[in-house]
Amino acid sequence: MDYLSKFSDEQAITTTAVSTNVVDLELVNPNLGEGTPLFARVRVTADFADGTSLKVSLQDSADNSTFADLASTAAIATATLVQGYNFVKLAIPDEHRRYVRLNYTVSGTMTAGKVTAWVGLG
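Below the sequence we write its predicted structure tokens.
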């Protein structure tokens, strides 16, 4: 995992927000070849507190400006979101646009919680 493949690095998630970084899939893995499965992975790096749940959506864009949802998780209860928990493994579809990011949707009022997220192989 390197900086080019990271969506979030210890990103605090207390309100609904997009990932700190947008990943350019043409730069991340240019030598993998067509058909190599890629996934968006997310790990909790600091316990979440309060709030109700968190949902993560994978979004793509052709121009790094206008994004649309590709896939989403179900809402994950705050009590489950503890340090070390790997809670997302969203497959990046074969049909996607160049740029991808994550959208973190918070339900309730979170007072703490951090994640690290990246593009990885299966």
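The first strand starts at residue 6 and ends at 12.
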